[in-house]
Amino acid sequence: MTRAGREPVTAGHLGMWLAVTFGLCMITGLISHGIQHPPGWFHWPSRPVNLYRVTQGVHVISGIAAIPLLAAKLWSVAPKLFERPVVRSLPHLLERLSLLVLVTSASFELLTGLFNIAQNYPWNFYFPQVHFAVGWIAVGSLLLHAAVKIPVFRRALGEPREPAAQRGPGRLVSRRGFLGVTALSVGTAVTVTAGMTVPWLREVAVLGTRSRLGAQGLPVNRTAAAAGVLDSAQDTGWRLEVRGPRGVRTFSLPDLKSFPQVTAELPIACVEGWSQQAVWSGVRLADVLRAVGAPADAQVRVSSLEAAGPYSSSVVAPTHAADPLTLLALRLGGEPLHPDHGFPCRLIAPNRPGVMQTKWLRRVEVL
User: Coil, strand, or helix at residue 221?
Assistant: First the structure.
């Protein structure tokens, strides 16, 4: 007698749910990758200011939801993994190979993603690059597996519902009960982690992994001490170097404060999934660029006092550089920036990942 959760129709339903969560995760992951490593055709707008916060939240939440779905899916098809003969035909071989690659790559993506949002990296490879590459493998194997299994899915999903009276004495739960337990597991997993991104769920996000709160109530991924910039950031001789068509100018902190000051409420949205709103004050980047003769459509690179690391500089696209909400921030929550939040000056721009909101600025250059 078939055990609950191992009927073809159950596997079919789980497969559809898994395809939806993986699809959302892949699309939003591609968006995040495109923002950080943009190809020539890619354009990411500066408005609405919370768009990246939403897309990256969906990326993490859909990935979390896929974990119990994948576990349930593996349970539902486990007996078929050990069927004999191992290979019966060419389509059967393709199905086996696609399933092996799919299970391996999907498990890798979900588990390493889980470690990433916990900011725990027990490996030596560069996570974003490998996660991106294996994601394509997972999607390719999923599409191949789905193509091979379409006839089976159609037959399975067309089966009539199982009447309660036909359940055998060894059945503890029905097919509907198994799917209900799976849905409850997904809902619980999402609820206790989604508060990283969804403010009104923050109190119940007991498993929501967030960076520790900084001195000004905002999470910190990398402190000034960890970046090795604590002394240089607090040096009274600090100057911001700005390079443009009219040459090079340097600005001290009082110089930057002499520009018109702007206050904006913008989120910090981290690639690990957490996000938080904050009130920033400072100088419009566009105002500083005009002081060195930069055109309105200038593309800009901002560089940090942190000499090394993949995020010690970032490129600001023309759309963001010209946006009046893109600031060289000097204050957070009405107070001078704490060193861990980028003192003496940091970039804060609407609708960009937190890793690209470069801290401890030393140079702005028009490209």
Answer: coil
